[in-house]
Write a structure and sequence with these properties.
The structure is a homodimer. Chain A is mainly alpha-helical. Chain A has ten helices and no strands.
Chain lengths: ~200, ~200
């Protein structure tokens, strides 16, 4: 999570400092109780700078959402290893890591909280449509590469990617909104799924 | 969704009328912009009645959450058919129905919106912990019955239920927060999963 730590530990400019303050204020108060005032309380410079850059909470949060989705996407392993099965697990294990490190938990919680706005606000829905598509396509690319090199059977790439992404999104959502840690059981069944439904030459 | 339609179409008492108004106001405005004022605007009786029953928005929404989770749970098919595979599909198809009927979409959106509060409010997290457990146990009961009657192989019941529940929660969450309808692809891969990983005598 280097790109995430980077803007949290050493923001590079005023915009990243505002993003950092937004992140901490959102994690503490949640979207509904978030105000520019509360973001200003964890912003090291003058609060007027925030108003200078953003017209209000919604404009700021939409930019924050684009910013964190970019960070999330940069951090999804993009397959620097050759082996397709290892690439798929690098991707899935990044998201299903147990225990979820505290920083990642807060980050995931912020994404779940902002995603909820997409139920009734099309600006948020547009961002999550793009993000969900990115995530499915990233998985699909790994599966397609595995079919090409003979690791995986000739499966329906898009359907498999959609299914795996749904299991991961459901796991991420539940693990930051309920007390039971379900990731190990999900990972266990995903491993069986990869073995029985994806691997060639069974 | 008879229990849902029932409180929406013909609320039985003042409490159900308040739940109905809360449902419509939440679907329209979202949790963050919801106020007792806005609930009062779609409540057919005097708004003072709402204040008489509830101290504020949070107390009302927590009761609303318990109320809708009860309705959701009552509506999950509980297996009136004998065949374990048919029971499992009745349950999964209820949740993955495509297209999602408008009323169910709004209902699912309200649940996703309230679930987001669980990222930073333990009162909501407590309710979703209970709800997620209920849902896993309902699936586990169907799978266990299928093992008992020889339909399903001797799988790890809890892990399978957790995996299926994660895929369903991920699908429900994405389908009300992004524009792409992923349910048919997920259902297709779930069907393959049931055939290859669950059914006995392959």
């Amino acid at each position: 999570m280097s790109a995430v730590s980077s803007f949290l530990d050493s923001p590079e400019d005023t915009r990243e400092e505002i993003m950092r303050a937004t992140y901490f204020a959102l994690s503490e108060h949640g979207y509904a109780d978030l105000t520019i005032q509360r973001i200003g309380a964890v912003f090291p410079k003058s609060k007027s700078l925030i108003y200078h850059h953003y017209d209000g909470k919604d404009e700021l949060l939409l930019e924050f959402l684009a910013f964190v989705l970019d960070r999330f996407e940069e951090n999804v392993p993009d397959g620097e290893v050759d082996d397709a099965e290892a690439r798929l697990w690098a991707l899935l294990d990044h998201l299903l890591a147990t225990p979820l490190p505290d920083g990642r938990r807060a980050f995931t919680g912020a994404m779940v909280d902002l995603r909820a706005q997409a139920t009734h606000d099309e600006r948020y829905r547009e961002q999550f449509t793009r993000h969900d598509r990115f995530f499915r396509e990233r998985i699909a690319a790994v599966v397609a590469a595995g079919i090409d090199d003979g690791t995986f059977a000739d499966v329906d790439v898009d359907a498999v990617a959609t299914f795996l992404a749904a299991a991961v999104v459901g796991t991420m959502t539940q693990r930051v909104t309920s007390e039971v840690e379900i990731a190990p059981a999900v990972r266990d069944r995903l491993e069986e799924y990869v073995q029985t439904a994806l691997l060639a030459d069974q």
